[in-house]
Amino acid sequence: MSIKFQGKNVMTTKRRNLKRSEQIQDSHFEDVLEKARNEGDPLFAEYNLLYEEYRALTHRLDLLDREKHHLQTQLVEMNRSLDLATRIDPMTGLANRRDIMEKIERESSRAERHKRTFSIMIANLDNFKLVNDTHGYDTGDDVLVEVARVLMSCVRSEDVCARWGGEEFLFLLTETPIDGAVALARKVLEAISMTEFKVNRPGIRITASIGLCEHLTDQSIHDCIASADRALRQAKECGKNRFVVAA
């Protein structure tokens, strides 16, 4: 749960107005003191004492206001960090399921407004259980981290690659028809199969299977993801280390 504050400019304006008000009051007190001193007012000493107390209080108020502003800024930054942490897979550093689903929903709305398309791609590492069983789960985790780096090197900056779960990764390919998605699928398959994951000696070699689906008009995002998932299962059944486009 994040806490939102007014913008920094609003806080700056409030502090500036407070400072201006203090300056006006200071000027008024100084005029009163100067008049009392010049006229030999017997209450001058009391006026002066009150003025010094007022100055001490305004100084304290200014310090408290600065501390409040500092704490609010820290809290805003903490909320931003917390929000980011809830959107990032802690192991791989990729987007997580929640983050990519929100981005797919936004992309779907944008595509509908501008009559454009996008594609969904799901990649699953082949026989990954064998890596865990043979080398241990720590090694398996290290392989996933390296795979994530390989995948990020394949996509454009405007695309999103997320860890969908386990050894499965989901891609949102913005403004990309199926031919562009196919080109990326080939690139990803080649990059993974040609990489020697050197978390162990000798390095581990793996492959992946991929399912693709271009989002259709009036198709829900859940149906689009389900179609890509069915295509992925078909790629597995057809021998793995390949991609299949959803029918």
Q: What's this entry about, in short?
A:
The protein has 247 residues and is of the alpha+beta class.
Characterize the structure shown:
- The chain is α+β, with helices and mostly antiparallel strands and 247 residues long.
- The protein has 2 domains: 8-85; 97-245, 2-Layer Sandwich (Alpha-Beta Plaits).
- Helix content is 61%, strand content 12%.
- The protein has 7 helices and 5 strands; from the N terminus they run αααβααββαβαβ.
- The chain has a 5-stranded mixed sheet with strand order 2-3-1-4-5, sandwiched between helices.
- α7 (221-237) links the parallel β4 and β5.
- α5 (137-154) crosses α6 (178-193).
- The chain is elongated.
- The two termini are 41 Å apart.
- The model is unreliable at 1-5 (pLDDT under 50).
